[in-house]
Amino acid sequence: MEAALYAQEKEYYLAQCRMMQEAEEQTKAARHDMISHLAAIKGYAAENKSDTIHDYTASLLGSMSQTQSLSNTGNIAFDSIINYKLRNAKADNIRLTIRLLLPPALNIELPDIATILGNLLDNALEAEAAEKRITVDIEYSRQILFIKVKNTFDGEVTYADGAGEHSIISRKAGGGHGLKNIRRAIEKYNGNLNITHDGKEFSVAILLYINER
Description:
Elements: H1 2-46, H2 50-64, H3 76-85, E1 95-101, H4 110-126, E2 133-141, E3 144-152, E4 158-159, E5 168-169, H5 178-187, E6 192-197, E7 201-209
Parallel strand pairs: 1-2
Antiparallel strand pairs: 2-3, 3-7, 4-5, 6-7
């Protein structure tokens, strides 16, 4: 498991580096061509070609946002996982709401971040829903890290014994291990896990108690 988590962590960081490199290259290219673009727009404006200007600027904005970074907190671990996991959300017609209040560094082991946040986002992305929406809310304050991921789903939840959150069974082949691994990581920080759902939304809220360095 440690080897798998290490490989996953490296994958996140490599993906983040690629995204940053692509964004930097696009920024340099856009800056280099900006004079030409402005001259073209000025020419279209002089000829009152508003439709052409609209299409031209839309194309420019689209090319500049292709590698849009969703998370820019300065905390590389969280930024890497969120940007990598949710990189295709727009193309997959998933509506995102992201709220992040994080310091650049936290006293939490990187494999635990990958386990908790990676599994939460995987589950949200894989949920079946007619209209997919994902909300990510993460905040650190006074040695408490709050993580909440909420997503739309088809309303189907399978339980083992009882009806508590600890008896939820994954619909993945083999039952899945995401929630089990999340709980195991949470225990290291004396944290709490709260799962709620109705017929449309599934929500997982986590509190971790983080000692300052």
